[in-house]
Design goal:
The complex is a heterodimer of chains A (257) and B (197). Chain A has 257 residues and is of the alpha/beta class. Chain A has 11 helices and 12 strands. In chain A, helix 1 runs parallel beside helix 3. By secondary structure, chain B is an alpha/beta fold. Chain B starts with a strand and ends with a helix. The chains are: A alpha/beta (257), B alpha/beta (197).
Chain lengths: 257, 197
């Protein structure tokens, strides 16, 4: 049976792994390669690296760490941040990344998704979506440029519509980051993920809100997501991946040994 | 032991190279006929769409070279699919090294691509799966697959069973990514290098 994936997310800024609360106040967690290697050894099923400076700063970011990561780990990993063209994506994939994830640039240029799909195939193309629940309007809004608080903006897209759009254009996987929950460890946004799941025929990865092991079993069992992404609970050592996987197997969730 | 990865111009060449290097071997990446012919073991990696990859292979004249190889060749993911005679993805005529074909997966209400870790069960005593237990998890990313058949070496189940691995004579293929499948993936690569003939 296809296993549900546990995916530590490493936010990268200036070549270091960082973590902020609700996208703010980034603090350095550690160096990239030793953390990547440690997570692979600990049983992570996949890693995601978000270069959170890239899209906002409109500059070419040094990605040489991608190839150093590819050298040391034996599980798949995805690189996000600052990929604005087929060329950018090609370089990252050549360096050994298995997938590339596009967020803000896809909102600026949705055709980019189609071009990436046509060149590299659907399986390489992950679309990251930062979704914010606006209490006043009761609407899930897609946000852009979330790496930099000063530049973060609300797009015209409602989340479900964007999810449908990116699939039509050839996305192979969607990472839905529920911004209201991000970094506060109160649990995944089950309601939103359930809603989006209905519109999502490709693998869906939940992001934002993991705080306890129970949050992982809830999101797999109630929202039927393919993978659960988390950062701070792993970086801070609040949950050990081996313990989490044992716990999830006890809950009869398909998990890789 | 001379190991060569065929430079198909596809994207996952680095990760295959790194995985072989982690086993302690040196490996060359080449699209040159002499280098490929002189290898003891050949790797044919690939990701992306079959039709585009076959075009690259034809441009490099590898479509005539690869069928002439008599040493063991391991196709990985799209590389495996290119070893068949035909892929439905882009209606591509392939290398015809293994007598079967690639079709879009029929998975019912399950999601495609089939992406993630799934369990593989060896179906015969191929040296490729030596000491690899039934139901070991390997990493898959694909939407097209080879049905079970006489050339199946191992199976997987995702909305129906399909070939996780195929082989014919000196040509071996795996649908999953051993280079990204943790210790068991490393074991499979080691088996290919050490035991496949």
């Amino acid at each position: 049976m296809l296993a549900r994936r546990i995916i530590p997310c490493l936010d990268v800024k200036d070549g270091k792994v960082v973590k902020g609360v609700q996208f703010r106040n980034h603090e350095i967690v550690g160096d990239i390669e030793p953390l990547a290697e440690a997570y692979a050894k600990a049983g992570a099923d996949e890693l995601v690296f978000y270069d959170i400076t890239a899209s906002s700063d409109a500059r070419v970011v040094d990605k040489s760490w991608v190839s150093r990561v590819a050298r040391v780990i034996d599980i798949p990993f995805c690189v996000a941040g600052g990929i604005k063209s087929v060329e950018d994506a090609g370089k990252i994939l050549e360096m050994g990344a298995d997938k590339i994830s596009v967020n803000s640039p896809a909102l600026s240029d949705p055709e980019l998704i189609t071009r990436l799909h046509d060149r590299f195939g659907q399986q390489c193309v992950v679309i990251g979506i930062d979704s914010f629940y606006d209490e006043q309007s009761g609407v899930y809004q897609v946000k852009q440029f979330t790496g930099d608080e000063k530049r973060t903006q609300t797009t015209a897209w409602q989340t479900a519509d964007w999810v449908r759009e990116v699939q039509q254009r050839g996305a192979g996987e969607i990472v839905l980051n529920c911004m209201n929950q991000d970094g506060v460890r109160k649990g995944y946004d089950i309601q939103q993920l359930k809603t989006i799941r209905e519109h999502c025929k490709v693998p869906l990865i939940a992001s934002g809100g993991a705080g306890e092991m129970q949050h992982f079993s809830e999101v797999f069992q109630q929202a039927d997501v393919d993978g659960a992404l988390a950062a701070s609970v792993f970086h801070k050592g609040l949950i050990a991946i081996a313990d989490l996987k044992t716990y999830l197997r006890e809950q009869h969730i398909a998990i890789r040994h | 032991m001379k190991l060569v990865i065929v430079d198909t111009g596809c994207a996952n060449i680095s990760s295959v190279r790194f995985a072989i290097e982690r086993l302690g071997y040196e490996v060359a990446v080449s699209d040159q006929a002499e280098t490929i012919k002189s290898a003891d073991k050949v790797f044919l990696p690939g990701v992306g769409a079959a039709a585009a990859a076959m075009e690259q292979i034809r441009n490099k004249k590898l479509d005539t070279l690869l069928p002439e190889l008599t040493q063991p060749v391991l196709g990985i993911c799209l590389g495996m699919q290119l070893m068949t005679r035909f892929s439905e993805e882009g209606q591509a005529d392939c290398l015809n090294l293994i007598d079967t074909e690639v079709r879009r997966m029929q998975v019912g209400d399950k999601r495609l691509p089939h992406m993630g870790w799934n369990q593989v069960t060896p179906e015969c005593n191929s040296p490729l799966f030596r000491d690899i237990e039934a139901k070991s998890y390997f990493y898959f990313v694909h939407s097209f697959a080879v049905a079970l058949g006489e050339h199946t070496l191992a199976s997987c189940d995702y909305g129906g069973r399909f070939s996780a691995s195929i082989g014919q004579e000196n040509f071996y293929g795996v649908q999953f990514h051993p280079e990204r499948s943790g210790p068991v993936g490393a074991k499979l690569l080691q088996n290919f290098i050490q035991y496949c003939e």
